[in-house]
């Protein structure tokens, strides 16, 4: 498990080897440095388990809209979510329309995102769909 606390943001990455779930949770206002730290930790952690057997659960409902440079880094991250061959990809939105629209807009530029990411309201719904 990786935990990170930035000035105005935080994230947690956890690979649950029993449930075969990789859970990425992020919240707050990310700076470019926070985004770079997330990418580094994500890349390192996803090499430690067989991704084809795991579901990815992304919980970014509390992530706040950011600067254009951070949005660009977020696009890089979404591509990485697709590059790692997860069995399934679920995105927790808590019904937040801004979050949904931001990620759908960024995701439409990423091959495979629209077809393979399922948006859910909460962690319980995500776990039911794993």
Automatic annotation (TrEMBL):
Protein name: Uncharacterized protein
């Amino acid at each position: 498990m990786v935990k990170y606390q930035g000035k105005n943001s935080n994230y947690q990455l956890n690979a649950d080897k029993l449930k075969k779930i990789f859970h990425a949770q992020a919240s707050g206002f990310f700076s470019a440095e926070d985004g770079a730290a997330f990418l580094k930790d994500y890349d390192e952690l996803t090499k430690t388990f067989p991704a084809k057997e795991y579901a990815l659960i992304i919980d970014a409902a509390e992530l706040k809209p950011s600067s254009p440079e951070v949005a660009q880094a977020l696009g890089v991250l979404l591509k990485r979510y697709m590059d790692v061959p997860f069995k399934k990809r679920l995105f927790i939105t808590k019904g937040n329309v801004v979050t949904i629209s931001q990620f759908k807009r960024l995701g439409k530029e990423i091959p495979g995102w629209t077809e393979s990411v399922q948006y859910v309201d909460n962690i319980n719904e995500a776990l039911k769909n794993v």
